[in-house]
Write a structure and sequence with these properties.
The complex is a heterotrimer of chains A (about 160), B (about 750) and C (about 280). Chain A has about 160 residues and is of the alpha+beta class. Helices cover about 35% and strands about 15% of the residues of chain A. Chain A is built from 5 helices and 5 strands. In chain A, strands 2-1-5-3-4 form a 5-stranded mixed beta sheet, covered by helices on one side. In chain A, β3 and β4 form a beta hairpin. In chain A, α2 crosses α5. The longest helix of chain A is centred in the C-terminal third of the chain and has 18 residues. Chain B folds into 3 domains: about 200 residues, Aldehyde Oxidoreductase, domain 3; about 325 residues, Aldehyde oxidase/xanthine dehydrogenase, molybdopterin binding domain (Aldehyde Oxidoreductase, domain 4, 2-Layer Sandwich), CATH 3.30.365.10; about 140 residues, Aldehyde oxidase/xanthine dehydrogenase, molybdopterin binding domain (Aldehyde Oxidoreductase, domain 4, 2-Layer Sandwich). Chain B is about 30% helix and about 25% strand. Chain B has 18 helices and 29 strands. Chain B has a 7-stranded mixed beta sheet. In chain B, strands 7-15-14-13-8-29 form a 6-stranded mixed beta sheet. Chain C has about 280 residues and is α+β, with helices and mostly antiparallel strands. Chain C folds into 2 domains: about 160 residues, Uridine Diphospho-n-acetylenolpyruvylglucosamine Reductase, domain 3 (2-Layer Sandwich); about 100 residues, CO dehydrogenase flavoprotein, C-terminal domain (Enolase-like, domain 1, 2-Layer Sandwich), CATH 3.30.390.50. Chain C has 11 helices and 14 strands. Chain C has a 5-stranded antiparallel beta sheet. Chain C has a 4-stranded antiparallel beta sheet with strand order 11-12-13-14. A 3-stranded parallel beta sheet of chain C has the order 1-3-2, with no helix packed on it. The termini of chain C are far apart. The chains are: A alpha+beta (about 160), B alpha+beta (about 750), C alpha+beta (about 280). Chains in contact: A-B, A-C, B-C. At the B-C interface, α3 and α18 of B face α11 of C.
Chain lengths: ~160, ~750, ~280
């Protein structure tokens, strides 16, 4: 099928099998390997991307579901070599260890803050409950999200 | 200190948050093909025939390797050193299949999808044999035909001291530990390339020992080591799961066959089933105490479920013996063990290398003893732990500046143990559905291989003309911050910023021979080598300037990126000048090579405290409070040490409460995270971490290890807390809802 | 070559449905189907994507019922103001399906059509006696939920039929749902309890409807638990009696290998938790 969708702000068209997973479309067809496969069944969150403003597992989305929709991946966050605030805070709060959960975790965090700029700790824990980190106890990650929310709030004021 | 003890992001954090860093599974090489594996669908049997015709006919398929057309030379996945004395009973593809998940064949194709589809088209005919899924069946002779030697390997006995006499209280128990998996977020992946014309093989993988792979693959394919290059890629977690060689020989065989790069990526299910897990263990033990709680002796018999191949299991089982005196002091220990083959998932290394398992067994018995003797569990431990400079009789080495007693004291105080005891008692009296409990545990570990196995490290440093330093050493960062820790040590010792020291990871073409990232040796041995090498580099700079200026070496100071004369500070050279002068005038590069051999291995331990709440209706357990106190000597990268310890607690808590690799009655394991429950962000407890940093060790800046020892006490602490909540003596893990409610049901029946 | 259909409205849907064969698959969120597709367990000749059918993506209030589009995502329903407080059991259930990512993509229609015994929304729609609106090339028809979901993975839908909406009567009173899983969040259901209670001002239960999911092949009514509550207020004793009734039912009808013994014990916990949402 011919698929046309918006990827990281740019209209993108390609010829693809309708049952190709978005994860494979990104990694194989478009050589965008920032999104990772951790389980292939929606249990680990490593493959998280944002579609039409909502965090989803890209291992559970097919090409035939994407026509006309808007997809944001980790590659779409940093602009002109400058890290998105969330990315910078993940670095500075020691929220990055092996890094394999990181891109998916950042996308879930970004989606949360897009909907809820003032999340409580409980809300952060729920929003990230679909992203497994095996290296940490999540505390640095939660701190990075809280710090990002605070900075966004300060910028608003 | 400027850097050591502060907190810094991991060295490749920016690459990771942008998704630009490359893991093995992200690699793309020109002409690269993809391999997918056909696994045995039966737990025990012989492959009679393989029909790959339909697979070979599929467009995009290049070749099919199988047990009939690939080398049948046997190897040990556990080999890391030259001429290592090991049982070698595994093959790349096995015609005698020994578990569901055993490799039978592999398809090499243009895309991973085509390779996997082609695998589904291969027809295999098996002759099925009786199988065993547990220790009892194997030990009763049901699968003696599984190997020529039978099903039991590595019978081992070791006794320390004399059996005590006197009026002793004896505690006789069994402990059973279930099978768990590392669940690294990065599944196993490997890329291999083979140049048919030059005979050069290159292997890229996330691994803990590049030289180990080179050795093992070199022997397997009978290749000169000069023709094998192994590169460690960015690792998405290991926890011991990437220190035995599963994909590397397979990818190498495929690359050699087709003469092109081949990538193999195991998905989650394949990683859980066909790499390895942590072995189930069964302990029969007898502990003897004096009436006032002094431990007098431990008799321990261990049967370890090795799974289908020996792997590391003989050594792994014996290593429990080496843990017996890392925490407690007592005069007598009689230990015996054996590794038993079953037709299940192969078992192998896991974080702590039997440290957690030994702690589960030891701490369970200490808790039972505390109850029977009427002694507080913290007090009982404080009565029995080793102290500074006590000798570990298993290794005959001093425990050095060992602070476990202080860790217990500090933890008992900061966790408010006595106050919590009262609160818990009150809560339980007032509540029917929910019950709370307290647990304490201690777990000990090591900092290198001394004295049992060889251990040494080489570090090279050279001064760049730009005034920075390039350091060459063999590191295998798991994602735990090893590279940054070394940079911080080097920066501290050299007087540079960590960003001004370049350190890369293991690559057999460029970095020095190293035994690998095991036994928590990296900070203690390689870090110390870095510290000493830095001193040597500064000394070399001074010597070059001394030669150039005539100023005696003793009068030269090397600091603040300058070399200057104490007596006449106007004689001063920036490091760029030193490099230039060395090149042009001294006609030498500023280069040093330093080798370090450790001769100490101090005790290193943690005291962990847990408060849990058990829902006696649903059997679910919440951890309400947790404190880990660690005798770390000196934290190098502080927040990373904290983060690692917290991660270790969540991992150990998962093992205690929910993680369990399911194997069905027909021998088919579940490789799905739907069935294997790790702790997620919703349920992760808040974990407080405290460090006792008294230095006094041979490690860099007085440091000791943390990455494994942080994990050793955890499951034992949580298990103890659950037993306290239920006033029970449950002697197994996981204590999941089904297990807890089963116990409560049986109590109600009584 | 796999065909794919992307209808944008009901008319196009009915047209595209007429092209489907018994090997075709309808995909909405795809969170169950895609796993089977990727493993090669199913090999459809065509995929029909429901997510573009705009009539299927809304929740509308009609005179005496609420109509829920089958392609509404779990998150959409979790946040839908029309569903609380009366139909609170729906957001209770959809707000706890899998992970946030699954909820943002998975749909109520897919959950029902997948017909897993552990499906979270099944006991809720059973309890609400939902009508299922089904489209086909011939037009629309409605059927009660228990005539659509027949057993594990089995529905009465023909290969050219698609669920387009659910109709739930208004005036339900007060409803709630609680799931007992393997852990607190992101888990398959082990027992799902969907409850409607009609209570007077003193809290005395005038009528009760209690449906349990994940204890049998399809959701079942826990009549004995209902009887334990009717005519009484919710007290420790009546709640415990309702819990015992659920335990007894599980003992009777749940096969042992479906974790029966665990569920018999844990029943009192999930019953207490769901009834705690009422007064």
């Amino acid at each position: 099928m011919k698929l046309t969708f918006v990827l990281n702000g740019k209209t993108t068209s390609l010829e693809v099998a309708p049952d190709k997973r978005l994860l494979d479309l990104l990694r194989e067809d478009l050589h965008m390997t920032g999104t990772k496969e951790g389980c292939g069944e929606g249990e680990c969150g490593a493959c998280t991307v944002i579609i039409d403003g909502e965090a989803v597992h890209s291992c559970l989305v097919l090409a035939c579901q994407l026509e006309g929709r808007s997809v944001l991946t980790i590659e779409g966050l940093a602009e002109n070599g400058e890290l998105d605030r969330i990315q910078r805070n993940f670095v500075e709060e020691t929220a990055v260890q092996c890094g394999y959960c990181t891109t998916g975790m950042i996308m879930s965090a970004k989606a949360l803050l897009m909907h809820n700029p003032h999340p409580t700790v409980e809300e952060i824990r729920v929003a990230l409950s679909g992203n497994i980190c095996r290296c940490s106890g999540y505390s640095q990650i939660i701190r990075a999200v809280q710090r990002t929310a605070r900075e966004m709030e300060e910028e608003q004021a | 200190m400027k850097f050591v003890g502060t907190s810094r992001p991991i060295h490749d954090a920016v690459g990771k948050v942008t998704g630009t860093i490359q893991y093995a599974g992200d690699m793309e090489l020109r002409g690269m093909l993809h391999a997918a594996v056909l696994f045995s669908t039966i737990p025990h049997g012989i492959v009679k025939s393989i029909d790959s015709s339909a697979a070979l006919a599929l467009p995009g398929v290049v070749d099919v390797l199988d047990c009939f057309n690939t080398t049948q030379k046997e190897y040990s996945r556990y080999q890391t050193q030259f001429r290592q004395d090991l049982v070698k009973n595994e093959r790349i593809f096995n015609s005698h299949v020994r578990f569901v998940g055993d490799r039978v064949a592999a398809v090499v194709a243009e895309t991973p999808e085509i390779a996997r589809e082609a695998v589904r088209l291969i027809k295999v005919e098996y002759e099925e044999l009786p199988y065993s899924l547990n220790l009892q069946d194997s030990m009763s002779g049901k699968i003696d035909n599984v190997f020529p030697e039978g099903a039991v390997f590595g019978e081992y006995h070791h006794t320390v001291g004399e059996k005590p006499e006197g009026d002793l209280v004896e505690i006789e128990t069994t402990t059973d530990i279930g099978r768990i998996n590392h669940v690294c977020m990065e599944t196993h992946a490997c890329v291999a390339d083979y140049n048919k014309y030059t005979g050069e093989l290159t292997i890229w993988s996330p691994n803990q020992a590049v030289f180990g792979i080179r050795t093992m693959v070199g022997e397997l394919f009978e290749m000169d080591y000069n023709n094998i290059r192994v590169v460690k890629t960015t690792m998405g977690g290991s926890f011991g799961g990437k220190q035995e060689w599963v994909l590397e020989p397979l990818a190498a065989a495929a690359a050699i066959r087709v003469g092109r790069p081949v990538k193999v990526v195991y998905n989650r299910s394949e990683t859980m089933i066909s790499t390895y897990s942590r072995a189930p263990m069964h302990f029969d033990t007898k502990f003897s105490f004096t009436k006032d709680g002094k431990l007098q002796g431990v008799e321990c018999d261990l049967a370890l479920d090795a799974g289908a191949y020996v792997g590391n299991s003989i050594n792994y089982a014996r290593t429990v013996a080496h843990k017996m005196f890392r925490v407690y002091k007592y005069p007598y220990c009689r230990f015996s063990s054996r590794a038993v083959i079953t037709n299940t998932i192969v078992n192998g290394a896991f974080r702590g290398w039997t440290g957690p398992e030994a702690a589960i067994m030891l701490e369970y018995n200490m808790n039972v003893a505390a109850k029977r003797l009427g002694i507080d569990p913290v007090e009982l431990r404080m009565k029995n732990v080793m102290r500074e400079n006590d000798i570990d009789p298993m290794s005959n080495t001093s425990l050095g500046n060992y602070k476990i007693y202080q860790a217990l004291e500090q933890g008992r105080d900061h966790f408010e143990w006595a106050k919590k005891k009262e609160e818990v008692a009150r809560f339980n009296a007032e509540n029917k559905r929910y019950k709370r409990g307290l647990g304490v545990s201690v777990g000990g570990h090591v900092n290198n291989f001394y004295p049992g196995k060889t251990d040494f490290a080489r570090v090279e440093m050279r001064l760049n003309e730009s005034g920075t330093v390039r350091c060459n050493m063999t590191l295998h960062d798991h994602g735990c911050g090893t590279v940054m820790a070394m940079k911080m040590i080097a920066a501290e010792a050299l007087g540079l910023q960590p960003e001004q020291v370049r350190i890369l990871e293991g690559d057999t073409d460029f970095t020095p021979l190293d035994v690998g990232c095991f036994s928590s040796r990296t900070t203690y041995v390689l870090g110390r080598a870095v510290e000493d090498c830095a001193a040597k580099l500064k000394e070399r700079m001074a010597r070059h300037i001394s030669e150039y200026t005539g100023v005696p070496v003793e009068d030269l100071v090397v600091e603040n990126q300058k070399v200057y004369s104490k007596k006449d500070p106007s004689i001063s050279f920036a490091w760029s000048d030193v490099a230039d002068i060395s090149q042009q005038k001294i006609k030498r590069e500023v280069f040093v090579s330093h080798e370090y051999i450790p001769t100490t291995n101090p005790g290193v331990a943690g005291a962990h405290f847990a408060l849990v709440e058990v829902d006696t209706y649903t059997g679910m357990t919440r951890i309400l409070d947790y404190l880990a106190v660690h005798d770390i000597g000196q934290a190098i990268n502080r927040e990373m040490c904290v983060a690692q310890t917290q991660g270790a607690v969540v991992m150990g808590a998962g093992a205690a409460l929910s993680e369990h690799v399911l194997i069905r009655d027909n021998g088919v394991p579940s490789g799905s995270l739907k069935d294997y429950h790790v702790i997620n962000s919703f349920e992760a407890p808040s974990v407080k971490v405290e460090f006792i940093e008294d230095g006094g060790t041979e490690g860099p800046y007085g440091s000791k290890s943390i990455g494994e020892v942080g994990h050793n006490p955890v499951s034992a602490a949580v298990m103890g807390a659950v037993n306290d909540a239920l006033d029970s003596e449950l002697n197994f893990i996981p204590l999941n809802p089904d297990a807890i409610t089963k116990y409560l049901r049986s109590k109600e029946v009584q | 070559m796999m065909k794919n259909y992307h209808p944008n409205n009901m008319e196009e849907l009915c047209r595209d449905l007429s092209q489907l064969t018994p090997e075709s698959k309808i995909i909405s969120g795809g969170t169950d189907l895609i796993i089977r597709l990727h493993s090669g367990a199913v090999k459809p000749d065509a995929l029909l994507y429901m997510g573009g059918v705009k009539e299927c993506r809304t929740v509308e209030e009609k005179e005496d019922y609420i109509e829920i589009g089958a392609a509404c995502t779990m998150t959409q329903l979790e946040k839908c103001p029309l569903l609380r407080p009366e139909l609170g059991a729906i957001p209770d259930a959809t707000g706890d399906v899998g992970s946030p990512q699954i909820r943002n993509n998975g749909t109520i229609g897919g959950n029902i059509a997948n017909a897993s015994p552990a499906g979270d929304t099944l006991p809720v729609l059973w309890m609400l006696e939902a009508q299922v609106v089904i489209a086909s090339p011939a037009g629309l028809r409605a059927a009660p939920i228990h005539e659509v979901v027949l057993g594990p993975g089995r529905t009465s839908l023909g290969h050219q039929e698609a669920i387009v909406a659910f109709r739930v009567k208004k005036g339900a009173g007060c409803t709630a749902f609680v799931k007992l899983g393997f852990r607190g969040k992101v888990t398959i259901s082990r027992i799902g309890l969907a409850v409607r209670l009609d209570q007077d001002d003193q809290g005395v239960v005038r009528s009760a409807r209690i449906i349990a999911g994940a204890i049998s092949l399809t959701p079942v009514e826990v009549t004995a638990a209902e009887e334990a509550l009717v005519g009484k207020a919710l007290t420790h004793e009546t709640v415990a009696a309702a819990g015992k009734a659920l335990s007894d039912l599980i003992m009777k009808i749940t096969p042992e290998k479906f974790d029966r013994d665990y569920k018999v014990w844990a029943a009192k916990g999930v019953m207490e938790d769901v009834l705690a949402k009422f007064h």
